[in-house]
Design brief:
By secondary structure, the chain is mainly α. The protein is built from 23 helices and no strands.
Length: 196
């Protein structure tokens, strides 16, 4: 593909893009990746996108990342997730957030978590939320945690609940608090109970 000009690459149809091997995709130069259109990125298969290096992922335009379908999003490795810039993470749609796996959620950096939109946070599946570490929950903070739906709160593990602090609990809505199970309530640190 090195012999192709940007104009030639941009002329490739969706079918031609899908026909490229993973080795060819991995060999794309930075200027080639920038030259590809949003429609061409939409044509990528999961295997093709998975072949991109973290350096290549970092070169994607926000619009191109936003065009990726659910199957491709689910295929991202932990390293690829961590390579996403903050604009890409902020642009994650509800449809994309819904398919994020536990491994992918667990791979998100603190600064990435902090730029997720409320809509994206609320779309994350309950199983995936269980993978958030204490540090990640701390990064979400009261603002991020208060954006979660009641059902998402009810899905948090007792260890996750125990890792939260007074400010996190104070930011909870009555609907969120009412969704907590008896096991979760018992996991609230004693020193934080008095502040509720």
């Amino acid at each position: 593909l090195d012999a192709f000009s940007s104009e030639q690459l941009q002329s490739l149809s969706s079918a031609q893009i899908r026909a490229l091997t993973t080795a060819q995709i991995a060999a794309l130069a930075p200027e080639d990746l920038v030259a590809l259109t949003t429609a061409q990125y939409q044509a990528f298969t999961s295997a093709q996108f998975r072949a991109l290096t973290t350096d290549q992922i970092a070169l994607l335009e926000t619009e191109d990342f936003g065009a990726l379908n659910a199957q491709v999003i689910r295929s991202l490795s932990s390293a690829q997730v961590q390579a996403l810039d903050l604009n890409m993470v902020h642009a994650i749609s509800t449809g994309q957030a819904m398919v994020l796996t536990s491994q992918q959620i667990g791979a998100l950096r603190a600064d990435q978590l902090q730029v997720l939109t409320t809509e994206a946070l609320q779309a994350i599946g309950t199983l995936a939320l269980k993978s958030l570490s204490a540090d990640q929950l701390d990064a979400l903070g009261p603002a991020g945690l208060s954006a979660l739906k009641a059902g998402q709160w009810a899905a948090l593990t007792t260890a996750q609940i125990h890792s939260l602090n007074r400010d996190d609990f104070n930011a909870m809505t009555t609907v969120q608090f009412a969704a907590l199970t008896s096991y979760q309530l018992a996991a609230i640190p004693t020193e934080d109970i008095g502040a509720l």
